[in-house]
Structure formats: C-alpha cells, structure tokens
Design a protein that fits this description.
five-stranded mixed sheet; 11 strands; four-stranded antiparallel sheet; D-Maltodextrin-Binding Protein, domain 2; alpha+beta; globular; 37% helix
C-alpha cells in the first residue's frame, strides 16, 4: 500500500526474503497448491487481487477489510512504522491545508483518495464529527499524493493523508512546501497484511517478522518498517464508517 518508485526495490527485496524464508520452512513439507510468486505482482484491480482464492500475501486498508474482506481473507499481521503518537501497528491521518487557511471546515472542500480509504476518508469524517462539524464537499483524487497536490494547487482546501504516506511525501515530493499541518486524527489499526490461504497464516506472520528484522539498514531506512504486530480483527471492525458527502 506504500508502493512508490522510491520504495519499490526495497519492497521487492522484502518479498524475496519472505518468499525464501517460506521455501526454507517448507523444504521438507511443501504446502500443496501454494505458489509463491518470484516477484511482487502489481494488479490494477485491487478488489480482484484481494479476493483471489490463491492470494498468498497482500496489504489492504482497514476500511476494505472491515466492510468487505474480513470474512473472505485471513488477517496475517500489521506492519509497525513507528509513527509518532501511535501504538505499535497503528496509524493516524495528518490534515493539511494551505498556509493561512482560517475558514470553518464546513466551507472547505475535502480531498480524499477514495471512499474505500480509512485514512483519507473515514478518519477525517469521524474526526470532524467528533468536533461537531463536517466538510463542505468532497473532491475524489484517487491517491494521497494527488490529494496533497489538489490542496496545494487550490483544487481542494484540506486533505487527510495517512501519516506514513505524509512522511514519504515530505521526504520525496515538492508539494509539502505549499502545505501546513492543521490537525491530526486519533490512531486506528494500521494497514493489515492479508492472505487468501488461511492455512499458512501463522507461517506468513513468522516469515514477515523475520524478514522485516533482516532488512538491510538501507532498506529499513527507506521502508521505515520497525516490525510487525497482530491486531485482532474486531479492533478493525469496531471503527465507524461514515456516510458519503456530495462530491464535486
């Protein structure tokens, strides 16, 4: 879920380590029918990808998991990115605006990456509701980076960016120079690793944990993964999904 050109090679090496760990584990007891891909497979249709019965390992967002996938896939583990103010395996969203923005949120257009996003959609809506306010309208951009750009360019007024995505944006993009952090949401369970192959869940969790700790210093610095933890499915399902606002 945090794939971008700067992280792709490190993610490939992380998968290679996971794959090889599983092959060593199964050397004398291969799992029948379990094909371990040589390289990461990028599928443009995420729902088809997540729902594939032979899905070995993927990462999804908390909202798709709790709303649609929880009965179809196994929750394997959750990556811990060591985000400030968040318990292990949790994340929050950073609300960004242009400098000098003082209008009420009810007058602002919220840029969201999609209605299937916990960090970009549900988190800011629930945060605003807790403050007794709402946003004026929604602009759907398709990606966190695009939401930040929409605010910077004046095509939206505020956006909620997943904290790890925001760290990468501030590290590698020019957009943050035109934005300021206005607020942040409460932490919620982070992006879970999932599998369609329920029988190998425990082996996958062990392989991911081993491979995260075996990352080189360079790859660890790029991905910023501190390790993995396990968060119960009910913790994901307890998060409220808001109603949609009118898009513009």
């Amino acid at each position: 879920m945090y794939d971008r050109p700067e992280t792709r090679a490190a993610h490939e090496r992380l998968w290679t380590s996971i794959r090889d760990h599983l092959r060593r584990l199964w050397k004398h007891d291969p799992k029948a029918g379990c094909r371990l891909p040589e390289v990461l497979e990028i599928d443009g249709d995420m729902w088809r990808h997540w729902r594939s019965p032979d899905l070995v390992l993927s990462q999804t967002c908390g909202l798709p998991y709790r709303e649609h996938l929880h009965g179809e896939v196994s929750l394997v583990a959750t990556a811990d990115y060591g985000l400030p103010g968040c318990p292990p395996g949790h994340y929050n969203s950073v609300l960004v605006t242009r400098p000098g923005e003082t209008r009420d949120w009810s007058d602002l257009r919220l840029a969201i990456n999609g209605y299937d996003s916990q960090s970009g959609w549900a988190a800011p809506m629930n945060h605003a509701a807790g403050l007794g306010v709402t946003f004026g309208a929604v602009v759907v951009t398709g990606a966190h980076r695009a939401s930040a750009a929409a605010v910077a360019d004046g095509n939206a007024d505020i956006a909620a960016i997943a904290a790890q995505s925001w760290r990468m944006i501030t590290r590698w993009d020019d957009v943050p120079t035109a934005l300021v952090e206005a607020d942040s949401t409460e932490p919620t369970p982070g992006l879970p690793f999932i599998s369609g192959m329920h029988a190998i869940r425990d082996e996958l969790r062990t392989a991911i944990e081993h491979s995260c700790h075996a990352l080189s210093l360079e790859d660890r610095a790029v991905l910023e993964i501190k390790g993995v933890t396990f968060i119960e499915p009910d913790a994901y399902r307890a998060i409220q999904t808001p109603k949609a606002l009118q898009s513009v």
